[in-house]
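Human: If only I could read backbone structure tokens as easily as an amino acid sequence. Take your time, and here it is.
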Amino acid sequence: MSAQEKSRPGSTPVGEILGRSVPRLEAREKVTGRAVYTDDMTLPGMLHGALLGSPHAHARLLAYDTSRARAMPGVKAVLTAEDLPDHRIGAVIKDQPLLARGKVLYAGEPVAAVAAVDLETARRALRAIDIQYEPLPEVFDPEEALRPDAPVLHEQREAYFSLAENTEARARTPNAAAHIRLTEGEPDSVWKSCEVIVEDVFETPAQQHIYLEPCSTLASVDRDSGKVTVYTSTQSAFRSQAIIAEALGLPMSKVRVIVPRVGGGFGGKTESTNQPITVALAKAAGAPVKMTFSRTDDMVMMRSRHACRIHMRTGATRDGRILARQVKLHYDTGAYADDGPFVAGVGAWFARGPYRIPHFDIECWCVYTNRLRASAFRGFGNPQIHFASEVQIDRLAEKLNMDPIELRLRNALETGEKWIGGAPVESGTLEACLERAREASDWSRRRSPRASTPGKRRGIGMAAVGHVSALLGSSATIRLNEDGTVTVSTGAVDIGQGSDTALAQVAAAALGLSLEQLNFTGPDTDGSPYDWCTGGTRTTFTVGRVITQACAQIQQQLFEQASEMLERPEQELELRPGGVVGVKGRPEAAVTFGAIAARALYFKGGPIIASSRWMFPAVPIDPRRTSAQGLSSMGNGYFVFGAQVVEVEVDELTGHVQVLEAWSVHDVGRVINPAAAEGQIQGGFVQGLGFALTEELVWKDGQLTNPSMSGYKVLGAPDVPVAIHPILLEHPHGEGPFGAKGVAEASLVGVAAAVSNAIRHATGAHVTRIPATGERVLRALMTTREGGAP
């Protein structure tokens, strides 16, 4: 029996395919190994590209000598910044060159590129390049980087084009990529009314995306037209097209991006310098070039989740009303801003949590350091702040001698209330998620003291989750084929999460078709309608919305034709399963989609085709409610809620934490494909568990010390609980396709806090820095035993 919870109205007549765990469209090609990824592709005369990374974290580039590399047999092109247009790129701030120009800002930053007849030759050529550096002072801690005497990383920062809003604080702090301050109520004076106050400093790590497929790009250039064709592993064909064009000074009409199968992304493939550099090598060599990163190069050169330090204080009354919160966040964005200012904006926006806290002061910095650039990663700044917020809620509950779920229920935002800045909470289902999590996990029994294995302690913890679903713009085109089947075109990229299948189900349900009657096309910037990106828990919601809108237009055109063919008014017509339009109440009176298509194509009306577009409207921050600096609006989407519970066992001798069982409850609006939704929740939970317990990029003197799968600890099967219970609540949202909401990111957001809270329940140890490795848990245990401060 499915885990989904029924709370929706009756199903639509043509919606039978919804709520079914149909197999993925690409399942057979993947399990048989026939799926084609970028690195599987070859072109005649194809060369192989490779990049040389800087050995220094901060140094001036004094001179290049590429003569030996250029003279090597088999080397067809060698590039440095001097061979490329002086164009900087960046999602928010245009601060990043394709190859380091003038100086390097992190160890591993690409300084030269080579194309050769094979990868071994290309790597030998890289070793033959001689570059002279002048080391410069380095800074690796974001708070230290904000000090007046810190080395300035971007001397020309004010000259960069930037979407980050300026503030006085940012203007006087050269290493600040963004500064945000949000206040409501009377945060300075209300503390005297708080009867219980907790205060902590939390730290979260830089986490690597560890997608199975490293970044890979294959580029070729048409000698006659100059048009570039790029095959690449990306989360957005259109963002990749724009970045390539911008970086190399090309018209977008001369750049075509095609996306083969993609082996994961999680935010790490929203954009990549791998793509324009590969194109630049292809142009220089006059031949196709493929560049596929090794795992080490991907980890050293690409991007990570933002490490974050969070100072938080929360106050409440004795009856459990949370009155005040003060937060200061420092997001380490590394050498380049990338998506960092927007990530920081999301962190600030969620710093109050999904609660009604009337008085707060939130200050957030996004800071340049001499580390690998940080960017989008599943949750987009929210897992960091949720870790701090939800651990403090448990600390408050402990001081108030109140059950943690009860405290959350007492303060949970409800439908009709306002988020920070006045954004409406249109579907406030947190209470339903908390209640379902309490029931499913047998919370009350498991909170009671219980015997465990000698030397081990067992506990249970939870976290509430608030996130968003939607974001920016999408479009779709639906075309009726001559035989009555339908072609669906979008620019959305399926990065392995199953969105092609879910979107096909949406289209099939809207038109009463089977999946066999539907052709779902892949992303190609020469022919696909625009889609911003696969990310931000947006694809099912946003792309599904425009698909249903286009299908409604197709239905209208079908009815116009069928009305004349059946000689009945349109209001008497209905869609029937299998591609049929019929007259209501008259089973014999019907006409097939194929017959309608033939009439439209050859007799009257023309092709039946429809397009739709939509963009989530940004919500301006209400200045009467919230004082805001550095943030004037939030365009992140509709709110979604969840609750996550974990049971752990902690070894008191080693500090090792084993998660025994987990429950992850999410309001998904309307389930499109239960197996896919449950898979997303389970996958997100495991990725969140890595964030909580094992995953951390570690630097020493500016050098990344663990850029490999042997040094970077990703959870294996023995580390994952046997039972992760995904529980789907259905509270349909009118804006989503058939009421659906997103769940992909929310499934990760609360995991680290739930684990930390479970450790505290089991042992009393207060873990404020993750990952909660054995050493850190043991240190917290020893501190607790000695009666010291956490």
